[in-house]
């Protein structure tokens, strides 16, 4: 009986994983202009502070991306839409070329966030 319950549990978990892979993050904010944000120092810093939790997330899109950024970075955007993958690539490219210390801090923060989430 215990073996049957264990088998059912394993199959259920596997099925949930397969179904979860098909889900994507909401695409509501996919039309923001990542280049406009990156080229505007004030705006870029506002988003960065939001992501680093050192300042408020002023806009709805910043709040949304703040919720998914850590997971997106750690899973290589597994649940991202194509546009979100593009935005993350642009963000990564810009920061690694122009402000690598901030990029490293952002990646470290995402690791910290994922560790906290795993403990919950």
Protein traits:
single chain; 120 residues; Antennal chemosensory protein a6; 6 helices; 76% helix; A10/PebIII; signal; OS_D_A10/PebIII_sf; Putative odorant-binding protein A10
Structural features, described:
By secondary structure, the protein is mainly α. It has a single domain (27-119), classed as Insect odorant-binding protein A10/Ejaculatory bulb-specific protein 3 (Antennal chemosensory protein a6, Orthogonal Bundle). It has helices spanning 2-22, 34-39, 41-52, 60-74, 82-98, 100-119. Helix 5 (82-98) crosses helix 6.
Per-chain topology:
Blueprint: H1 2-22, H2 34-39, H3 41-52, H4 60-74, H5 82-98, H6 100-119
Signal peptide: 1-20
Organism: Camponotus floridanus (Florida carpenter ant)
Keywords: Signal
Number of domains: 1
Percent of residues in beta strands?
A: under 5%
Mean pLDDT over the full residue set: 86
CATH architecture heading:
Orthogonal Bundle
Order of helices and strands: HHHHHH
Low-confidence runs: none
CATH homologous superfamily assignment: Insect odorant-binding protein A10/Ejaculatory bulb-specific protein 3
What share of the residues lie within helices? over 70%
Task: Kindly provide the name of the CATH class.
Answer: Mainly Alpha
Number of helices: 6
Q: Which class best fits the helix and strand makeup?
A: mainly alpha
Write down how many β-strands occur, each being a DSSP E stretch of 2 or more residues: 0
Oligomer description: single chain
Report the major sheet.
none
């Amino acid at each position: 009986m215990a073996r049957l319950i264990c088998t059912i549990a394993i199959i259920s978990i596997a099925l949930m994983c397969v179904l979860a892979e098909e889900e994507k993050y909401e695409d509501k904010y996919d039309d923001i202009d990542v280049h406009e944000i990156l080229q505007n120092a004030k705006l870029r810093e506002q988003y960065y502070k939001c992501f680093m939790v050192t300042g408020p997330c002023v806009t709805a899109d910043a709040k949304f991306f703040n919720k998914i950024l850590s997971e997106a970075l750690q899973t290589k955007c597994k649940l991202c839409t194509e546009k979100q993958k593009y935005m993350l690539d642009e963000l990564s490219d810009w920061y690694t070329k122009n402000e690598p210390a901030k990029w490293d801090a952002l990646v470290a923060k995402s690791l910290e966030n994922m560790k906290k989430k795993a403990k919950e």
